[in-house]
Every structure is written in C-alpha cells, then in structure tokens.
Amino acid sequence: MIEELLAARGAGELAHPGGTLLAHLGRTRDALAAWGARPALQTAGLAHAAYGTDGFPHSLLSPHERPVLVDYVGVEAEAIVYAYCALDRAFSYPRLLTGIVRDRFTGTASQVDNGLLRDIVELTYANELDVMTQSPLLRRRHAAELRLRLSSWSAYASLPAVEALERL
Predict the structure, then answer these.
(1) What is the pLDDT along the chain (168 residues), one digit of tens a residue?
(2) How far apart, in whole angstroms, are the C-alpha atoms of residue 21 and residue 126?
(3) DSSP 8-state code for residue 54
(4) Contacts by 9-18 with C-beta closer than 8 Å and gap 24+?
(5) Any domain includes 49
(6) Numbers of helices and strands, H then E, in the chain
(7) Is residue 166 a part of any domain in this protein?
C-alpha cells in the first residue's frame, strides 16, 4: 500500500502545515476525491510530494526510483506525481496555460498535453488549498498571490476546486 511506503520513507515524521507530510498527502487525496477526480489523480494526490517539489524540497524517493513508485501507484498516477514534483515553478507557472513547463530535475522544457495540464492544475489547487487551510500564517502571507494564480488557471480546474478556492 502506498501509505506504507510513504511512512517508511519518513512522511509520517516530516513536519508540514497541519501536522505531518503524510497527513497533508492524505488530505490532498481526500480533497481530490471529494471533487470527483478519477482514481489515478486521487492516488497522485496521495503521493504528490514523493520526489520533493519546488515548494517542499524533502524527497521521499529519488527521481531515479520512479519504478518503485510505479509499482505502488501505477504508471498513470506516477506520471502525474513526477510531472508535479519536477515542475520548475518559477519558469513554468507564468507559462502554464500554454502547456510549456520545465523539469527542475533535468532542466528540459517541454509541452504537456491538456490532460496532464488539467491534472497539474487540479493537484495544485488541492495541495495549496490544504496548506492555506492548515496554516493561518501562510494564508495571511500568500493568500492574495495564490488566489490570483489559481483563479487565472480556473479554466483548467474542476468546478468543485474553483468553489473551494472561493470558500477559502
């Protein structure tokens, strides 16, 4: 089970807004499930920080261990996790709606298809909204910027995700 792998790799001990990284990963998956995301995206939500992210650099697995994660979550979910973890945010966020992203592990820029773009956006909504919900300090510091960014991507997000942003 993926939760066991994540816990074995330290996710239950890593501090994160709202408790531990493992708790955050579970809440991210739960939000995606509540929004009606397909199973592969829900699973990706649970593992979305496995390789570390541009915003949370603590990795549980190395990008060289992709086959290990595939064994736990499947090819589709792992591809979403890798894309999310590899996203060079400074480069990619301003270009995201064009589908141009840069892999922070390889430095390579590429075009992602609309399906993966939607997955990245939906996962970003779930991740960021959980962080903002769990941390009043981060919400005060970053809510306005986050609202602008996520709102600009709303055409690629589900209606429940957009509504969750509005509620926050």
Answers:
(1) 999 999 999 999 999 999 999 999 999 999 999 999 999 999 999 999 999 999 998 999 999 999 999 999 999 999 999 999 999 999 999 999 999 999 999 999 999 999 999 999 999 999 999 999 999 899 899 989 999 999 999 999 999 999 999 998
(2) 14
(3) S
(4) 9/50, 9/60, 9/61, 10/58, 10/60, 11/49, 11/60, 14/58, 16/56, 17/130, 17/131, 17/134, 17/135, 17/138, 18/130, 18/131, 18/133, 18/134, 18/135
(5) yes
(6) 9, 4
(7) no
Closest Cα to residue 49, out of 85, 4, 8, 9?
A: 85
pTM for the full predicted model: 0.96
Is residue 168 one of the residues assigned to a domain?
no
Distance CA 160, CA 26 (A): 18
Task: Give dist(CA 8, CA 136) in Å, integer.
Answer: 30
Domain that holds residue 47: 2-160
Residue 102 DSSP code: E
Both tokens of 136, joined, read 């009043």
Number of domains in the chain: 1
Q: In what helix (H) or strand (E) does residue 166 lie, and over which residues does it extend? A: helix 159-167
Residue 128 lies in a domain: yes
Cα 118 to Cα 77: distance, rounded to the nearest angstrom: 14
